[in-house]
Amino acid sequence: MIPFEPRTSPSLRLIPQGRLVAVFLLLLCPGLSAKGQISFTSTIDLALRNSPRVKVAEDDVRKAQATLAETKSVYIPSIAAGGGAGASSGITLNVPTIFTINAQSLVFNSSQKDYIRAARAGLEAATLALTNVREQIAEDAAVSYLSLDRIQKRDGAMGDEYRSADRLVAIVQERFDAGLESDRELKRARRTLVQIRLLRLQLEDERASLRDHLARLTGLPGSNLETVPESVPPSAAFHAPEKASADAYRDTPEVLSAQANAHAKLQTAFGDSRYTWRPQITFDAQYGRISPINNVSTYYNLNGNYNTMAAGVQIQLPFLDRTRKAKARGSMADAQHAAHELEFLRDQQGESRLRVSHNVAELQAKVELAELDEGIAQDDLNTMSVQVKADGSAQPMTPKDEQNVHIQERQRFLDALDAKFQLQQAEISLLRQTVGLNEWLRSLVVTTQAPAPR
Predict the structure, then answer these.
(1) Which CATH fold topology does 16-50+110-278+318-445 show?
(2) Tens digit of pLDDT for each residue in 282-294?
């Protein structure tokens, strides 16, 4: 069913629906237009509204609905009317009529029920394919948003790291000029500075690329898109049951769609193979008004009745049709092909689930290790601060050591940030392959919309 579209001006009809939503958000949310900020859930919602892939999948669903309606409509009589008039000479080969009305419908065909089942399975396959595409777009938008949020956090930390590296170069340069440092040490300090500058340039390129990607996903202007850190969920909140195998979860929409498609192909093959040696019954009715201007009464005894009517059923029994037989073989080959594709997708699903679940466990350990390294670096920084302020009872740390500790602490923070992002990315991927990403996203929307406790 095609959704109702309200009347709009010609200029608005030229704007895609997703971009219209984006424009309305920009008009209704001053903070979004001024700062370019957008929340995590709003990004995913706009991506689903704006995605051409989602719209293509929705078109496929509407086509499957029309195909199912078509297979059922053959039992409803189709009515057609036609007419005309013209001169003739001599006896006519057919009785001329001014107009005729014909009605025809299928009464019985053993193959038609198979075709209806095939169309119904095709609609299920298209619906599941739409669900799969929506989850793919949602995963892409979520991961891209988290990546942009990580870049924003890295930018601040790398700015601190760059300033510490710059001060370190200045300190080592002074010590080199005073003859207290070697040329090799000065080169190492400069290399650290150049390396951080290169990483910041790469970070800026990645930020521009992600902004452009999110802009294409959401339909928003991408030049100044920024994330809202408070809207990012702290964790995917997914924990697989202990000792659960990769096959312990239900199939993904992609596999379920392939399964429905294989069933549709099989039903079509059944219908094609049951064409011969089975009766086909159709209903036919006709009414016509015989033309009085062609001298029909001269050749036919009409008894003054110019109306003609006929109604009845027609029975056919096809017993030899090479074309249909070859088509049935082709349909069965298509069904077997779809079944083998289903087996292949199921194998891929199991392998992917097992790989991602193990990857999540490893990344959790990496996050824990990175957080410990960050904590140790922070403790070293705190110890250094105490030593710098210490009196004669302890030897204070040199300015060079101070900047090195600052750089090391920032680097450990960046390592922890990257490890957390990799874990979030793997958790989202595992969600899509197991319990369903859409269910998790709906739970996030409910959580954000829930009223605050009084």
Answers:
(1) Outer membrane efflux proteins (OEP) (1.20.1600)
(2) 999 999 998 888 7
